[in-house]
Amino acid sequence: MLLKPHSRIQVFEGAEDNLPDRDALRAALAIRQLAEGLTADDLLLVLISGGGSALLPAPIPPVTLEEKQMLTKLLAARGATIQELNTIRKALSQLKGGGLAQAAYPAQVVSLILSDVVGDPVEVIASGPTVASIHSVQDCLHILSRYGLRAALPRSVKTVLARADSDPHGPHTCGHVLNVILGSNALALAEAQKQAEALGYRAVVLSTAIQGWGTAAAHGADRHQCHGRPLPVPASAVMM
């Protein structure tokens, strides 16, 4: 992985322990600067995987990185889902929720995506830097109210949400972007089934959407058995 001397490739490290930090912020701002310098004759190739949210932190001023981190931690501690966390992250970010694609316009953008989210919703994976957000400010306020955080918001967060709510241009679109899922739980399961059948096994995909601890897979197999479709023995389940 060591680069040759005078390589045109730049490597930025950050987000230790999958948490956004100052190193990741510097990297995100460098990526934004590169994207903003592109023209209609350029192609921006983006590689996206799980963990991208922590690797691409660029809060909308006056929100600080620390304030955004604090809000995310409070939401997670109160049981917010990954979808809810990413909805808030996108609303407070310059690059998430299609912000990176918008910065690159009018260049064409191609995103190659490894999904770590069940169902592969491209707007959720890494908080969708090349996918226009479908959520409104009201969605954010509803989430914050649900977890009892709306009254405790920093003034900076209230400012950014109010500014977005009054934007006369409304949400931007990403018509110059092609998003492609290259890898996901469903694709991995399909290939595992294909390889098992090639070896002569009777392979059954129990589910592509099992989440939680290992006992959930066992319960799924029990339900499969109870519905009159006995599983071959031995059987196994693959989870995210």
From TrEMBL:
<comment type="similarity">
    <text>Belongs to the glycerate kinase type-2 family.</text>
</comment>
<dbReference type="InterPro" id="IPR039760">
    <property type="entry name" value="MOFRL_protein"/>
</dbReference>
<keyword id="KW-0808">Transferase</keyword>
<dbReference type="InterPro" id="IPR038614">
    <property type="entry name" value="GK_N_sf"/>
</dbReference>
<protein>
    <recommendedName>
        <fullName>Glycerate kinase</fullName>
        <ecNumber>2.7.1.31</ecNumber>
    </recommendedName>
</protein>
<keyword id="KW-0547">Nucleotide-binding</keyword>
<dbReference type="GO" id="GO:0005737">
    <property type="term" value="C:cytoplasm"/>
</dbReference>
<keyword id="KW-0067">ATP-binding</keyword>
<keyword id="KW-0418">Kinase</keyword>
<dbReference type="GO" id="GO:0005524">
    <property type="term" value="F:ATP binding"/>
</dbReference>
<dbReference type="GO" id="GO:0008887">
    <property type="term" value="F:glycerate kinase activity"/>
</dbReference>
<feature type="domain" description="MOFRL-associated">
    <location>
        <begin position="5"/>
        <end position="161"/>
    </location>
</feature>
<dbReference type="InterPro" id="IPR025286">
    <property type="entry name" value="MOFRL_assoc_dom"/>
</dbReference>
<dbReference type="Pfam" id="PF13660">
    <property type="entry name" value="DUF4147"/>
</dbReference>
